[in-house]
Amino acid sequence: MMKITFTIMALIPTTLILKPSLLYPASTSYMFLLALLSLTLLEPSSNTIMNLDSISSPLLLLSFWLLPLMTIASQRAMSKEPLQRQRMFLATITLLQLFISMTFMAYSLTLMYIMFEATLIPTLILITRWGQQAERLTAGTYFMLYTLSTSLPLLMATIFLNNMTMTPTLFIQMNNPLNQWTTLLLWLASMTAFLAKMPIYGLHLWLPKAHVEAPIAGSMILAAILLKLGGYGMIRIMQTLPMLKTDLFLPFMVLSLWGAVLANLTCLQQTDLKSLIAYSSISHMGLVIAAIMIQTQWSLSGAMALMISHGFTSSALFCLANTIYERTHTRILILTRGLHNILPMATTWWLLTNLMNIATPPTMNFTGELLIMSSLFNWCPTTMIMLGLSVLITASYSLHIFLSTQMGPTSLNSMTQPTHSREHLLMALHISPLILISMKPELIL
């Protein structure tokens, strides 16, 4: 694990000193080499410095796989920038990857907290320095305020746990007898930061803003990895804190499931394509929150499967939205009609990705949602009402995206550029791992 960490660190000076002609070929090749090297981490082995297990390994591998894909997706937009800004951009996403991988490999709660919060800085730089709209500073402020205000209770809880156990706690179940109110406050303080990162409905307002204003690499890393840090943190903290009755999580369960339905309904009235995809992430993460809080083997397996599959699917959707934006210079759905007539191959990618988004069998999304639904039904049959509504509306807005962007009369002229091989490669590298994992799901379950 340490060799991979040092290899990522070495990529930062490499991007700053490479010749201009070699900047993208060399850095992308280096990142793909890192992604291939990280495949060995699917067989977790214990390490005294860094730690990996069946929960952190798939998420770490997902983050490494998406690093070169972010570079490929940003290449066209970045090529118009001055050379120094291109170098800084590559160094920033590499630094963000370093912090993310350290969060997943952290052995102590304190290190995990520090790295979890450190991801804020490169993400904030990405949104505010390379965002495309005038509102990017507002989006950055929202992101920073939500993250910092919810992470302060987590810091207090971390210090309290370290003082209680006299050890940097993470994989040790606390058995110290604590007052019931102390235990409840500990849970609330620890969970708030992760729930805001997921985000749960009610603490979600930073996400659509951040997605809309961020560059394509920022949107990909936000949807695919940073939201999963919240889920990973929740699973880890549940292994550490004293046991609580699941009934105490009832308000969060209701909020997450009802929030998933409300986020789906919000998707139906969105006019901005990126904002629509961002709200769809909120609804999927609502299911993951509910599954993690049940704390059964099936529900945790379902949460892991849905987190991994959503990482690939949402990232692919943002790449497709960026493909349209680069040609039409707008993300308003009503202005991006009739692309099937001009970019027929891109229509195939849209169809595949939308089918995965609505969890069509035999994809990994279907496996994850099926496990989560069976767990929730076993916990409380009434949850089927909200889950059924959520699934129905997800299918509706996915069909709405596909029909809005692909069908109807086009507003583009015949001089529109065809899709490049780079964009087809990008989509193939998103879809093919998801199909391969669907054939061997025990890698991540």
Automatic annotation (TrEMBL):
The protein's UniProt keywords, in alphabetical order, are: Electron transport, Membrane, Mitochondrion, NAD, Respiratory chain, Translocase, Transmembrane, Transmembrane helix, Transport, Ubiquinone
InterPro entries assigned: NADH4_N, NADH_Q_OxRdtase_chainM/4, NADH_UbQ_OxRdtase, ND/Mrp_TM
Location of the protein in the cell: Mitochondrion membrane
Is rRNA processing found in the keyword set? Answer: no
Q: Give the stretches traversing the membrane.
A: 49-67, 88-107, 113-131, 143-164, 184-207, 214-237, 249-268, 275-294, 300-320, 332-352, 383-403
Source superkingdom? Eukaryota
User: What Pfam families does this protein map onto?
Assistant: Oxidored_q5_N (PF01059), Proton_antipo_M (PF00361)
Q: Main EC class of this protein?
A: translocase
Claim: Electron transport is one of the keywords in the record? yes
Reactions catalysed, as given in the entry: a ubiquinone + NADH + 5 H(+)(in) = a ubiquinol + NAD(+) + 4 H(+)(out)
Topological relation to the membrane, as annotated: Multi-pass membrane protein
Q: What is its main location?
A: mitochondrion
Q: Which family does it belong to?
A: Belongs to the complex I subunit 4 family.
What is this protein's function per UniProt?
Answer: Core subunit of the mitochondrial membrane respiratory chain NADH dehydrogenase (Complex I) that is believed to belong to the minimal assembly required for catalysis. Complex I functions in the transfer of electrons from NADH to the respiratory chain. The immediate electron acceptor for the enzyme is believed to be ubiquinone. Core subunit of the mitochondrial membrane respiratory chain NADH dehydrogenase (Complex I) which catalyzes electron transfer from NADH through the respiratory chain, using ubiquinone as an electron acceptor. Essential for the catalytic activity and assembly of complex I.
Q: What is this protein called?
A: NADH-ubiquinone oxidoreductase chain 4
| Gene name per UniProt | ND4
